[in-house]
Design a protein that fits this description.
The chain has helices at residues 70-85, 180-195, 223-226, 294-309, and strands spanning 9-16, 19-20, 26-32, 35-41, 45-53, 56-59, 62-63, 87-92, 95-99, 104-111, 118-125, 135-140, 146-151, 155-163, 166-173, 198-202, 205-209, 214-219, 228-235, 247-252, 257-263, 267-275, 278-280, 286-287, 311-316, 319-323, 328-333, 350-353, 363-368, 373-378, 383-391, 396-399, 404-407, 413-419, 424-431, 435-443. It is flat. By secondary structure, the chain is mainly β. A hairpin with a 2-residue loop joins strand 5 and strand 6 (56-59).
Amino acid sequence: MTISDDICGTYALTHCNGKVAPTNATLTIHRSGEAVTAHVTVANDLRGPVQYENHHIVGSLNSTEKEATPTQASVEESLSKGFADGLDVVIHINQVLFKNTSSSFVFARSSKLSDLDGEHAIIAINDQPPNQEMIMRFTPDGNGGSFVIADIVNSLRGNCQIDAGLLRGELATTQVETDDTLTMVEKLIREGFHKGFYICKGESGIQLQSSDATIQLCRIVTLNDLKGEYLLKSFNGCVVPTCKQPGVAFTPGNGNEVDISIVVANRIRGTAVLNQNILSSEEPLMSTRMMGTEGEAQLESAFNVGFQYGLEAISNGNELTLKNQDCKFVLVKEATPETQHGSPTYKGTYYSKCFKTEGNGLLFRIINDHEKKWAFYNDTEEYRMLVHATFGARSHIEALDNATMHQDDDGRYVVEVTVAPQATEMFIQGDVNGFKVVYDAEPS
């Protein structure tokens, strides 16, 4: 993956110059070989080649020059000038900030090509289930696009990429004769890729939408997809108050078996079998005997019973949903820093290195997106780390544990904390609207 792949995808404008976006605007950035293209749609289409390097993007966008409202024209002019002058880029999970001295834009990423990577079952076409097994596979081509194979009766094959917010490609086909219904399915898929599919992400998986067809995909989950450590985001749609961060780890075993390790109040272990996206355990999971709260006990029981009855696994990016008719667990992949002298005691869904040019990063900022919490971990043995952060006045945050907070004369929130060697310090919780962080190190 090249650096430019980090920024590729389809986005929607959420904020312009510090305020909620006054009109709808979409942005698509895609790569073809070494060429990177940006495509903005407001009232007009603004499109052109851009260069992206060292977290800075610059390029000239040409407009179709159709009629626009004053508000739309103002946003188009600001975006066009911003790209022409050059914009610094800050990427945070699926949110991207573009800024320079005169303007700033926040975009939320709705999809990227890598969301499609892997093998999917086609489970519905125009809301009707198929009358036979149908598979669609996407494999990165290393050139900014993806190879796609759709096996219906014939095998449809080609290359695709996201362009102007649509998944487009030209598919060739084998020439096996089939009945009219399946011929129509193959035609809908080929024409959909030719005209372009919108990519929509839902609980059941990816949905491809064209002017003529809606194709519902369900990712075929493999043991490799499951492998890793996850944090519990919700149980039956709610956050469960717990003393520890609840987590689940999956380790592939023999055949279709996967070893399970769950931490709530107790540590629960067992083995399940993955069969057609269903995880099930023939035996009860084994648990330690620590006393937890009533909520923790209910959560532990739900995990144990759920795996015995069977849980459908739905993989969607860094989220994994396990569900049956009685329960639903939403898990988020844990982001684990590569540390040298220990490990953080707080687990997050995202992390960044604070000293990017020094060793392994020395100090890590850890963010748990669904808990809306920040923490810092000091991965040194001999330095105290001083953290000084300023958050925008429209932020809604509180300082945690040893962190201190006050407001300056402009209403901005100033938060500070000192992190001892190999220690983790909780920092803030809440909604952040712009921030700047300064770090310093001193001998302990």
